[in-house]
Write a structure and sequence with these properties.
The chain contains 15 helices and 17 strands. It starts with a strand and ends with a helix.
C-alpha cells in the first residue's frame, strides 16, 4: 500500500490524498460503506458499483468467520470473488465485537472467548487467529485485534485495556509478517489507537502506534456513546501525534456532521452503519438536514425524494411514494433510502475533497455543518 498526500487545507488539518492498493486507488477523504457479512444490506453489487460508487467497502471478520466460514471463503478464492467485488475491501478484526458482545465474551491476555450470537457455540480469538482469518478472507486492509472499551470507562480499566491492545498489536505484527497473503495480492495491516476519552492515554497510545511504523494508523474506541465534543477532542489529540505522511482511519464514525468535523481534524477514512441502518428505518440525510420519511407530513408530498439528485433514486421516486412503501412494509422503501444515504455520504466526502484541493474547505465545511443540523 502507498499513500500520496496531495494537499492540506490552510485553515484546518483537512487533507486530500490517494491510497494505492492492488485492487485500485482510494481517493481520500473517503467513506466506506459497511458490508458486515459480505453484503451492503439491500444493495446489489451492481448498484453499489455503478450508483453509490465507493472506492472501498468494509466487511467484518467475526461475522464472516461464523458464516459462511473460512472453508467456503478459501474455496471461493477470497471475499472479492465470493461477493463479486473487484475494488478494495477492509476487514474489521473482531475487536469491536469484544465491546458489542460484552455479555457473551471473556477477555484474557491470550485472547477473547466468544459465545456465538447465532447458536451459542464458543470460539476463541487470539491476535494470531485474527490475522489468519483475515488472510483467509483476503481483504486489502486488515485491522489489528484490539479491545474497544465502552463509554463511560474507568481510567484504570482503560489504561490496562490500552496496554493489552498494544501487546496484542505486537503479536499481530509478528504473525502478519510471518504469514503470506493467499490470493496473489498484497494485504496491509492497520494498528488501532485506544485510550477511551482520556487525553494522556490517547496521546500515549498514539505515540506507541506511530512508533510501530506501519503504513497507516487507525483510531478506535470512539463513537461508542461519548458526546461529539469528546470525540473531536480525542481525535485532535491523536492526529497531532500521528505522522502526516500516512492515512488515518477513524473507525465507526458517524453522522455527516461528524465526518466533516473529523475531516477538519485530519482524518482520511471513515466507516459507519448509520447511512444503511437509518435508511432501513426511513431516515435520510440531505445537505439541508435529516428527514424521517415515516412522518405523516410527507404523505401527500409528491416532490422528488431529494432534488439535489445524489443518486438516481432521488428523482425517480417522490417522498409520498417512499413513505407509502414504509407504511406497507415494502422492502423497496428500505432499498431506496439506503442507496440515497450511501450516495449522499460519498458525495459529501468527494465534495470535501474538492474544497480541500480548491483551498476553501473551512468555509464550505462551516456552512455545511450549520445547514445539515436540521430536522426537516
Amino acid at each position: 500500500m502507498k499513500f500520496d498526500l496531495l494537499q492540506t487545507d490552510s485553515q484546518s488539518q483537512a487533507r486530500a490524498g490517494v491510497v494505492h492498493t492492488d485492487h485500485g486507488a482510494i481517493e481520500t477523504p473517503i467513506f466506506m460503506p459497511v458490508g458486515t457479512v459480505g453484503t451492503v444490506k439491500g444493495v446489489h453489487q451492481r448498484e453499489l458499483e455503478n450508483d453509490v460508487n465507493p472506492d472501498i467497502i468494509l466487511a467484518n471478520t467475526y461475522h464472516l468467520y461464523l458464516r459462511p466460514g473460512m472453508e467456503v471463503l478459501e474455496k471461493a478464492g477470497g471475499l472479492h470473488k465470493f461477493m463479486n467485488w473487484d475494488r478494495p475491501i477492509l476487514t474489521d478484526s473482531g475487536g469491536y465485537q469484544v465491546y458489542s458482545l460484552s455479555a457473551n465474551r471473556k477477555i484474557k491476555e491470550e485472547g477473547v472467548k466468544f459465545k456465538s450470537h447465532i447458536d451459542g457455540s464458543y470460539h476463541f480469538f487470539t491476535p494470531e487467529r485474527a490475522m489468519d482469518i483475515q488472510r483467509s478472507i483476503g481483504a486489502d486492509i486488515i485491522m489489528a485485534f484490539d479491545e474497544c472499551t465502552p463509554y463511560p470507562c474507568d481510567y484504570n480499566y482503560a489504561k490496562r485495556s490500552m496496554h493489552m491492545t498494544h501487546r496484542w498489536l505486537k503479536r499481530c505484527i509478528e504473525h502478519f509478517n510471518n504469514t503470506p497473503s493467499k490470493y496473489g495480492f498484497n494485504q496491509t495491516l492497520f494498528p488501532i489507537i485506544q485510550g477511551s476519552t482520556y487525553t494522556d492515554l490517547r496521546q500515549q497510545s498514539a505515540e506507541f502506534i506511530a512508533n510501530c511504523d506501519l503504513p497507516a494508523n487507525a483510531i478506535g474506541g470512539l463513537s461508542v456513546g461519548e458526546p461529539a465534543e469528546e470525540m473531536y477532542a480525542m481525535t485532535d489529540v491523536v492526529t497531532a501525534v500521528l505522522p502526516k505522511d500516512k492515512p488515518r482511519y477513524l473507525m465507526g464514525v458517524g453522522t455527516p456532521i461528524n465526518l466533516l468535523e473529523n475531516v477538519a481534524l485530519g482524518v482520511d477514512m471513515f466507516d459507519c452503519v448509520m447511512p444503511t441502518r437509518n435508511g432501513r428505518n426511513g431516515m435520510i440525510f440531505t445537505a439541508h438536514g435529516t428527514m424521517n420519511l415515516k412522518n405523516k407530513k410527507w404523505e401527500q408530498d409528491f416532490s422528488p425524494l431529494d432534488p439535489a439528485d445524489y443518486a438516481w433514486v432521488d428523482t425517480a421516486y417522490s417522498k409520498a411514494y417512499v413513505r407509502h412503501l414504509f407504511t406497507v412494509n415494502e422492502m423497496l422503501g428500505r432499498q431506496i433510502c439506503t442507496i440515497h444515504n450511501l450516495s449522499f455520504y460519498l458525495w459529501l466526502m468527494r465534495e470535501a475533497r474538492k474544497h480541500i484541493l480548491a483551498g476553501d474547505f473551512r468555509t464550505w465545511k462551516d456552512k455545511m455543518v450549520k445547514q445539515m443540523d436540521n430536522r426537516l
